[in-house]
Amino acid sequence: MRGKPTLRDVAERAGCSITTVSNILQGRSHLYREDMVHQVMRAAQELGYRPNSIARSLARRRTATIGVVLDPQHARLTHNLYAHDVLDGILAFLEPRDYDIRLITPRTSDPAAVWRRIDNGSIDGVVLIAPVMGSPLLEWRHYSSLPAVAVGSTLPDEYRLSHIDIDNTSAMTMLVEWVIQQGHRAIGYIKGHPLHWSAHQREQAFRRVLDRYGVPIREEWVLQGDYGPESGARAAEQLLRQSELPTVVMAANDDMAIGFLQQCRTLEIAVPERLSVTGFDDSSWAERMGIPLTTVRHDRYQVGYLAAQQLLHQIETGDTHPQRILINGALVVRHSVAPAYALASPATLQPAFSTEGGSKQ
Amino acid sequence: MRGKPTLRDVAERAGCSITTVSNILQGRSHLYREDMVHQVMRAAQELGYRPNSIARSLARRRTATIGVVLDPQHARLTHNLYAHDVLDGILAFLEPRDYDIRLITPRTSDPAAVWRRIDNGSIDGVVLIAPVMGSPLLEWRHYSSLPAVAVGSTLPDEYRLSHIDIDNTSAMTMLVEWVIQQGHRAIGYIKGHPLHWSAHQREQAFRRVLDRYGVPIREEWVLQGDYGPESGARAAEQLLRQSELPTVVMAANDDMAIGFLQQCRTLEIAVPERLSVTGFDDSSWAERMGIPLTTVRHDRYQVGYLAAQQLLHQIETGDTHPQRILINGALVVRHSVAPAYALASPATLQPAFSTEGGSKQ
DNA sequence: ACGCATTTTAGAAGCGTTTCCATAGCAGGC
DNA sequence: GCCTGCTATGGAAACGCTTCTAAAATGCGT
Question: What pLDDT score was predicted for residue A138?
Answer without folding.
Answer: 94
